[in-house]
Structure formats: structure tokens, C-alpha cells
Amino acid sequence: MDKKKKSNCFLLSKKLNSKYISFQEVKGKTTSSYHIFVILINHPKINRNKVYRYLQSKNIFCNVHYIPIYRHPFYKKLGFNKKDYLNCEKYYQRTLTIPLYPELKKKSIDSIIYHINNILKS
Question: The whole model's pTM is what?
């Protein structure tokens, strides 16, 4: 992994409010390319969509990945159904991908951290 990207991951992981956010765990001798940086929002009152809209309003362009298979039209036709994948839906409803790329400046990372922590404080 690119050193700058790794440094950005470290900074995000350390400075984001871990009371309400979980991160990908990389254990033992494994590594991650961190091609995206996914956070899992664990706030009792604020959901992923609210965080998403707030960040967008601050020009922080986050995204939603890992859409459950049963939500895709092709798989719906094959009979995949939400009721069979409740854990997938719970995960999907709480995850958000935040900006992460080697060229991301410290000022931008600080802004991402500030705004995520700001909306999740209660």
C-alpha cells in the first residue's frame, strides 16, 4: 500500500470518534490495500443517510458500497429476498465510504474528521 494512503488511514482511524464508528480490522500478518475506507456507524440516533447528506452538504463526497445482492434487479429476478439476508441489510444501512486516496491533503482529512465527529457528537 502507498505510504501516504497508509498514513491517511492511520490518521482517520485514530481521530474519528470510535465511540460511534467501527473500522475494518486488519489482524495478524494480513494487510489491506484500503482501496476504500469504510466506516460502520453505530450511533443510536443518527443513521448513515443523515451522515451522508451532512457530509455532502460540506462538499465531502462519500459513497455507499457493498449494496446487498438482493437489491440488484438481476438477483431479484432470481428470487433473492431481503428477509433471507437481514444481517446484510443491517450492515448496509450503517456503512459509509469516506474519501481516501494518496493525494488527499492533511487539510481535507482534518475537515473529514471534524465534520464526521461533529455530526456524531450528542
Answer: 0.89
Q: Percent of the chain, pLDDT > 70? A: 98
Q: Which contacts (CB < 8 Å, 24+ apart) does range 10-19 have?
A: 11/106, 11/109, 11/113, 12/37, 12/98, 12/100, 12/109, 12/112, 12/113, 15/113, 15/117, 16/113, 16/116, 16/117, 17/116, 17/117, 17/120, 17/121, 19/120
Domain 3-65+95-120: which topology? Aspartate Aminotransferase, domain 1 (3.90.1150)
- Cα–Cα distances (Å) from 17 to 23, 68, 121, in that order, read 11, 26, 8
Residue 1 confidence class, pLDDT cut points 50, 70, 90: low
Q: Give the Cβ contact number of residue 86 at 10 Å.
A: 10
Q: What pLDDT shows up at residue 7?
A: 87
What are the tens digits of pLDDT across the range 74-98? 999 999 999 999 999 999 999 999 9
Q: What is the chain's length? A: 122
